[in-house]
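TASK: fixed-backbone design
INPUT:
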């Protein structure tokens, strides 16, 4: 991070100020905390008031992280990362949540789903070409879900037909996060319609500047437009952008989807903790009416206890993931169902606790860091994204508990 001193830039943190302390967790945590505090103070000056778009702020935050080696800290060095241990990755996630640093929403696919796919399945050329650009701000999106093929992803119908050294793509994708900003897309297509639906799928890297691509943002119930639908008409993708073999895309996609486990959901759990703590502290400052209602205070206490239980479950998931335990498949389903349902309950409580005022969208301000109606409305998406909770319960019953179909 730099600040202006006269006409010169004074460097406060360099690339080794944090990474050189990686072998000492306490010193590493202190360095990360100091850097975040100074950097976020600078953010308030750079983006004072409403100055700066969502895209600008996200790119700024990625650039600042990259200056100290934290752009892609969990990646191998060969592809632009710094090979940080799981312990240090957890520390970063905890400190990001504690201080309320920006959620790297724009880079969710770039930081997690892309490396989970390419490091395992990509060619060396694909890895060296595409991975290093992420820490420099390259945005990726995901073209998986379709109208009629969301939770049942294997029913997708977007078609890829081989034409010499290319594939011609036609179809439609939906609920693609931040695809209006993306330079590249990881794309699932159907290449063989005459076999079982899981067997005829192929995985591609698609350049979002290719001819025949139209992106239409989707306005959500909370007023945001973080998703879009993608229309593909005779889009040509070169064969070297195929990931894995033809018709083996379903196996490749399982690695992509596995990125929704682990640190990604761990950080969201830590943020939920601090959100609830700040909500309660704000209620004390305002002497909120709900604090005088014994039923509501008991409800808050139960929700807070459930949140702490989820945090323990998330730590269990991290341990199992690191150990490559076979129980990960079971734990990740529990995490999906329990945490998303809890977020919905917490959003509902916060809105009710704030009375009629809690039903008015006012935006997040320093005086009210949690917007109850936004929390509540947005929470419903979590129970649908990544496979609806109803589908997850079926998977748990059939594949984990081996219960018979009714």
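OUTPUT:
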């Amino acid at each position: 991070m730099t600040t202006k001193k006269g006409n010169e830039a004074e460097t406060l943190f360099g690339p080794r100020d944090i990474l050189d302390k990686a072998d000492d967790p306490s010193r590493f945590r202190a360095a990360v905390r100091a850097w975040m505090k100074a950097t976020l103070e600078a953010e308030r000056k750079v983006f004072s008031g409403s100055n700066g778009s969502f895209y600008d702020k996200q790119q700024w935050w990625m650039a600042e992280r990259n200056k100290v080696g934290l752009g892609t800290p969990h990646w191998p060095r060969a592809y632009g990362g710094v090979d940080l241990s799981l312990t240090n990755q957890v520390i970063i996630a905890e400190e990001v949540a504690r201080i309320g640093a920006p959620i790297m929403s724009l880079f969710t696919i770039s930081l997690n789903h892309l490396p989970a796919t390419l490091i395992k399945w990509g060619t060396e050329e694909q890895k060296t070409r595409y991975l290093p650009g992420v820490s420099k701000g390259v945005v990726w999106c995901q073209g998986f879900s379709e109208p009629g093929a969301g939770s049942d992803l294997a029913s997708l119908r977007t078609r890829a037909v081989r034409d010499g050294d290319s594939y011609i793509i036609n179809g439609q994708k939906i609920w693609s996060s931040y695809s209006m900003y993306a330079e590249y897309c990881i794309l699932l297509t159907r290449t063989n319609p005459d076999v079982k639906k899981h067997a005829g799928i192929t995985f591609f890297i698609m350049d979002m500047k290719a001819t025949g691509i139209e992106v239409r943002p989707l306005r959500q119930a909370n007023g945001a437009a973080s998703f879009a639908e993608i229309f593909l008409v005779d889009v040509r993708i070169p064969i070297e952008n195929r990931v894995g073999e033809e018709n083996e895309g379903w196996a490749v996609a399982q690695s992509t989807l596995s990125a929704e486990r682990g640190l990604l959901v761990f950080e969201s759990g830590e943020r939920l903790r601090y959100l609830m703590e700040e909500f309660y502290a704000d209620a004390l400052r305002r002497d909120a009416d709900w604090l005088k209602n014994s039923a509501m205070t008991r409800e808050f206490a139960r929700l807070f206890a459930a949140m702490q239980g989820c945090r323990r479950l998330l730590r269990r998931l991290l341990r199992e993931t690191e150990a490559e335990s076979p129980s990960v498949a079971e734990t990740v389903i529990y995490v999906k169902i329990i945490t998303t349902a809890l977020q919905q309950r917490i959003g509902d409580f916060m809105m009710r606790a704030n009375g009629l005022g809690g039903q008015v969208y006012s935006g997040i301000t320093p005086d009210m860091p949690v917007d109850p109606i936004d929390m509540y409305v947005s929470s419903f998406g979590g129970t649908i994204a990544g496979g609806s909770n109803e589908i997850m319960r079926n998977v748990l019953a059939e594949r984990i508990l081996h219960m018979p179909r009714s």
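COMMENT: The mean pLDDT is 89.
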